[in-house]
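Dear colleagues,

As part of the handover before I leave the project, I'm documenting each prediction I ran so the next person doesn't have to rerun anything. This entry is a single chain, and its sequence is reproduced below.
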Amino acid sequence: MYLTFDDSLVTGNEMIDSQHKEWIDRINQLMKTCETDKEKMAAVKMLDYMADYADFHFGEEEKLQESIGYPGLAEHKKKHEEFRKAVEELKEMLEEQEGPSDAFAKAVEENVMKWLTFHIQSFDRSVAEYKYMRSNADIL
């Protein structure tokens, strides 16, 4: 299974959308590594990248939310922490294996791919809608 950045994942914020596209590309690379290479170090490097990119991306999202006075910031931060924990658990899982197993790939699908899709479609979209409403309060 691979992710596709489509209209269902567009938030309308160009910076956030471009970061989501990059992230999805890297997740797809990780899944390809799981399917074809089965190389542990390649998967570990992809997870490390994902953890670093999460820190960068979540930081950007949280700065944006602070700048617009988004009321759901604390809850959004909690969701970001859930993701960080999931990536750490995936790294621990991988450390115990010879390489990325089918169970590992399934865990990536559940804890990264589905999480990210839901997060973008719900939490990130609500931020974009809030930002739009604040920016256009005079015409609403």
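The helical segments are 14-37, 40-68, 73-95, 102-135. The first helix runs from residue 14 to 37.

All the best with the project,
I.
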